[in-house]
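Need a sequence for this fold. Nothing fancy.
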């Protein structure tokens, strides 16, 4: 059985509140995934199973319909990066991430390609977030740049096959830069309306770090089945299984050691 995020969420010992726009946005997003022509049949199947709108509506239950749709579409766009790693040279990944980095960090740039609908999703999301919380957007832009640099690092990491010769602790530090955890946490803080000067307070900074770490771990636990089927090796569960000699069910079961 393909374990999907909705299954994992239903098992959590917490109650999730879905955004009121969930159903309508989910239908529109899923139709876009199926009809856009951007995704292969395999990717389309996986994305529909993932239900990005469910995840986004639980993380951001107070966001409006436009924002929820943009976040859902961005989730699908970022999903393309994984397959891109498998078939592209590191230099090509670098060029792609430069474009996506600019689309978010500088959405008014004249250098953006208006004909690229995937960049348009990113650009529109940046403009919407900047309008919603102009005081917090600079922090979001920095974390987005960190993620884009992390994607480049990930491409080089896999090109050199370093995932087969790394300790668990080393890989955690790597995933903190590559799993988009900081940006996801920043997007949550955007909903909280924290004053910009409070985000770097030692206590808040520590909480942001721990939350980004948790996001990275959750990402790898969730994607374990896909990564294992690819023989990818670059996954916390796979690396911890190898280093600490326990099986997959113990690693991702009810009493997770990861």
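Here you go.
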């Amino acid at each position: 059985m393909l374990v999907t995020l909705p299954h994992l969420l239903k098992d959590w010992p917490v109650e999730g509140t879905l955004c009121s726009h969930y159903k309508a946005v989910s239908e529109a997003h899923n139709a876009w995934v199926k009809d856009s022509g951007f995704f292969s049949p395999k990717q389309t199947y996986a994305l529909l199973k993932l239900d990005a709108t469910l995840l986004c509506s639980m993380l951001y239950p107070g966001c409006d319909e436009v924002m929820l749709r943009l976040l859902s579409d961005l989730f699908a766009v970022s999903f393309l990066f994984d397959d891109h790693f498998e078939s592209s040279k590191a230099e090509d990944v670098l060029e792609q991430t430069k474009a996506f980095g600019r689309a978010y960090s500088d959405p008014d740039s004249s250098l953006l390609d208006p004909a690229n609908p995937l960049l348009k999703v990113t650009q529109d999301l940046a403009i919407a977030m900047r309008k919603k919380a102009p005081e917090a957007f600079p922090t979001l832009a920095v974390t987005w740049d960190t993620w884009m640099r992390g994607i480049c690092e990930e491409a080089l990491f896999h090109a050199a096959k370093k995932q087969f010769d790394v300790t668990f602790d080393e890989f955690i530090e790597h995933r903190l830069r590559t799993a988009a955890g900081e940006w996801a946490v920043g997007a949550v803080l955007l909903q909280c309306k924290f004053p910009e000067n409070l985000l770097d307070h030692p206590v808040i900074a520590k909480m942001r770090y721990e939350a980004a770490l948790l996001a990275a771990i959750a990402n790898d636990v969730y994607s374990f089945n896909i990564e294992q089927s690819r023989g990818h090796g670059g996954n916390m569960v796979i690396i911890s299984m190898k280093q600490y000699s326990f099986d997959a069910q113990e690693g991702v079961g009810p009493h997770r050691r990861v």
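For context: Residues 133-258 form one domain.
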